[in-house]
Amino acid sequence: MQPPSASPCRGGVSWQGILLAVSLLTFWNPHPTAQLTIEPVPFDAAVETDVLLLVHNASQNTIGYYWFKGNTTEDSREIISYSILTQKINTGPAFSGRETLYTNGSLLFMNVTKEDTGFYTLRTLNNELRPSGCWREKLPKPNITINNSQPMEGEDSLALTCEPEISYATYLWKINSQTITDGDRLKLSNNNRTLTLFSVTRNDTGPYECETQNPVSASRRDPLTLNISYGPDAPIINPPDSHIRPGTNLNLSCHADSNPPAQFSWSFNGRPLESTQELSIPNLSTNNSGSYVCVAHNSVTNLHRTTTKNISISGKWTREHSIKCWVEP
Questions:
Q1: pLDDT digit string (tens) for 209-239?
Q2: Is the pTM of this model over 0.70?
Q3: CB under 8 Å to 320, separation ≥6 — which residues?
Q4: Which residues pair with 212 in a beta bridge?
Q5: Domain ranges of the chain
Q6: pLDDT digits (tens, 9 = 90+) for 160-185
Q7: Across-strand partners of 236?
Q8: Per its UniProt record, what Gene3D superfamilies does this chain match (predicted)?
């Protein structure tokens, strides 16, 4: 039975194979006279299945094959070897009992597991080195951890870390769907896994996305929006009118940008009034002239902001009249 064919690698570009739970990436370096290549069979596999690293185009001068676990040829990492001269197979310290080496140098992994993750190196006896296999776990959906769940504007720095830590993955950060790079207040760690925001502001809420990538897969976290506490800003009192006629009603409202929303209270000429966002006083008289102060308070930042509005009650007293009209037939 012929194994599935795979698209060849050209110019050092990596060939990629995607597995359901374990992924395999193979590399080889073209040579002017020969191309030693390794093809994973089957192209798609899963944990607890068998995978064959099939060797193609081995040199006719090759007299032995040595397989190692890792990107190394240290004796302690040898899995198995085969001598064409003696037709003898020897197992090494890294042999698990699930590997079978064929006379053409191809290596069979039986019942693969996640523990098989890592590089595998094929060394021929004539010292042609070919990094030939890298088991890669399909990337899980990442998660973002935050060192401060409720940072305050202008006071706190914030570190966002993409979890889990995966040695063979690269990390990419985005804010508002735009790739993040280092800046005056943004710093990425050496492996891009941690994003640090210095002196956060209300404009840093995001949303943020963390993406993990390896040569055979990519996985992205759902957008995360930060909860940054700020404010309150100086309150704004509406309406802007300052001169009001006697006998009318006074309706003032106070607004201040704040997260969480601010709590409001009023005072008149230093005397506390209502603890509400809106203040209503009916049937005004000249005694209602004076300074009206709105106080906005943020219970998280523990900041207070005040705004004063001077109201003058003057002019003629006005009353509301109603007239009923009718027409007799």
A1: 999 887 667 888 889 999 999 999 999 999 9
A2: no
A3: none
A4: 171, 219
A5: 15-137, 143-220, 236-313
A6: 999 988 776 789 999 988 898 888 78
A7: 255
A8: Immunoglobulins
